[in-house]
């Protein structure tokens, strides 16, 4: 019974809308972009897939925020992606303006939506959407952890020659090269990963995961979209179904892990109210140090954002 708006009909936004339509779990998907014809074209193309793939989700493309009225969930993918040689943080001056403008326009037409931010630099763009929307902390959060964990799981599956489905893992921290994959919380069909792989090889996989986004930027000249789009759609699915699933997401920390007034990736339970519960793991000293390093990095980018807002 839900209406979902996806803002930004580029690589990631169009993928979110397309994957979501295939899941057949919401009534309507609105795909909005400042390039209205691009959004209309991608929505029409997806709708024409429906007879082949057997889904009935209505999907519409537009540049007009009036069409987004009454959205239950909004996924913000609007913004520029990085090019080779850039970091995600280099996108801040362009994307902060875009995310702030999008958030304001969304709130003019939907009263109390759940907002999932995808635009980079992710942790700080999620903070921007939170502050700018005035929505409660359980209603605004970011997608990164599902993607970063998926990369980690995929690399492990290749190395171990097992199904990626059998690999469960937790990854925390900011969506940047300081992210913190946690081998101590990684299992292969319930078996600790450390019993299945040599330490050196595991270290290599952790290092590759941290730079997983950059690897794809190097290969394609722009950033990834299939896995990111599927990850955001999975978050929408678990909110709509309210099925109690647990994922790492970028959420507002209000004392959890000893951190305050910051958005950072931690394991949470999603539900119809957005963030149902933040899960606090009993991290050891080394893991906590890595998380704090990541926190410090994100705080630096937050400072840049705050300075921009004060100008
Ligand atoms: N969180 C993550 O894990 C993750 C993963 C992949 C990409 N991203 C980020 O997502 C963003 C989008 O990436 P992409 O590959 O889809 O880029 P893209 O260039 O393919 O698409 C971006 C779209 O945003 C639109 N846009 C720009 N300003 C807008 C506005 N004010 N209102 C509405 N639409 C607007 C553009 O017209 C374009 O179609 C980037 O910032 C990228 O870094 C994040
Ligand atoms: O790497 C990027 O710039 C895009 C995204 O954050 C990703 O991890 O794929």
From TrEMBL:
CDD domains xrefs: LDH-like_MDH (cd01339)
Q: Which InterPro entries match?
A: L-lactate/malate_DH, Lactate/malate_DH_C, Lactate/malate_DH_N, Lactate_DH/Glyco_Ohase_4_C, Malate_DH_type3, NAD(P)-bd_dom_sf
Instruction: Provide the residue positions that the database annotates as binding NAD(+).
Output: 8-13, 33, 95, 118-120
**Active site: residue positions:** 175 (proton acceptor)
Question: Which EC number(s) does the record attach to this protein?
Answer: 1.1.1.37
Domain Lactate/malate dehydrogenase N-terminal as annotated: residue spans: 3-142
Q: Which reaction does it catalyse?
A: (S)-malate + NAD(+) = oxaloacetate + NADH + H(+)
Query: What is the enzyme's main class?
Result: oxidoreductase
Looking at the record, the residues that make up the Lactate/malate dehydrogenase C-terminal domain are 147-307
Instruction: Output one GO BP term.
Output: lactate metabolic process
List GO molecular-function terms, semicolon-separated.
L-lactate dehydrogenase (NAD+) activity; L-malate dehydrogenase (NAD+) activity
Q: Identify the keywords attached in UniProt to this record, alphabetized.
A: NAD, Oxidoreductase, Tricarboxylic acid cycle
Q: Which residues bind substrate?
A: 82, 88, 120, 151
Q: Name one Pfam family in it.
A: Ldh_1_C
Q: Which HAMAP family match?
A: Malate_dehydrog_3
Family label: Belongs to the LDH/MDH superfamily. MDH type 3 family.
Describe the task this protein carries out.
Catalyzes the reversible oxidation of malate to oxaloacetate.
This protein is called Malate dehydrogenase
What species is this protein from? Answer: Membranihabitans marinus
Gene this chain is encoded by: mdh
């Amino acid at each position: 019974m839900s209406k979902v708006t996806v803002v930004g009909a580029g690589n990631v936004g169009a993928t979110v809308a397309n994957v979501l339509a295939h899941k057949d779990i919401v009534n309507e998907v609105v795909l909005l972009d400042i390039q209205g014809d691009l959004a209309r074209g991608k929505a029409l193309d997806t709708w024409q897939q429906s007879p082949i793939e057997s889904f009935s989700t209505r999907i519409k493309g537009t540049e007009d925020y009036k069409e987004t009225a009454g959205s239950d969930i909004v996924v913000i993918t609007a913004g520029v992606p990085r090019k080779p040689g850039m970091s995600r943080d280099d996108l801040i001056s362009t994307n902060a303006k875009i995310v702030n403008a999008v958030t304001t326009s969304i709130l003019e037409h939907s009263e109390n939506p759940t907002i999932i931010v995808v635009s980079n630099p992710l942790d700080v763009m999620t903070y921007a959407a939170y502050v700018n929307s005035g929505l409660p902390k359980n209603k605004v959060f970011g997608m990164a952890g599902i993607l970063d964990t998926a990369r980690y799981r995929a690399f492990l599956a290749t190395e171990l020659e097992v199904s990626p489905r059998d690999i469960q893992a937790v990854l925390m921290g900011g969506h940047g090269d300081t992210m913190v994959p946690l081998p101590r919380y990684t299992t292969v069909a319930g078996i600790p990963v450390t019993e299945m792989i040599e330490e050196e090889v595991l270290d290599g996989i952790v290092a590759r995961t941290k730079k997983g986004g950059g690897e794809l930027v190097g290969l394609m000249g722009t950033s990834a979209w299939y896995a990111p789009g599927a990850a955001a759609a999975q978050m929408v699915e678990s909110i709509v179904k309210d099925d109690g699933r647990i994922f790492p997401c970028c959420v507002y920390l209000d004392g959890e892990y000893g951190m305050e007034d910051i958005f950072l990736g931690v394991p949470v339970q999603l539900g119809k109210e957005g963030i149902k519960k933040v899960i606090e793991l009993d991290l050891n000293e080394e893991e906590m140090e890595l998380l704090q390093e990541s926190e410090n990095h994100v705080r630096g980018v937050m400072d840049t954002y705050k300075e921009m807002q004060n100008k």
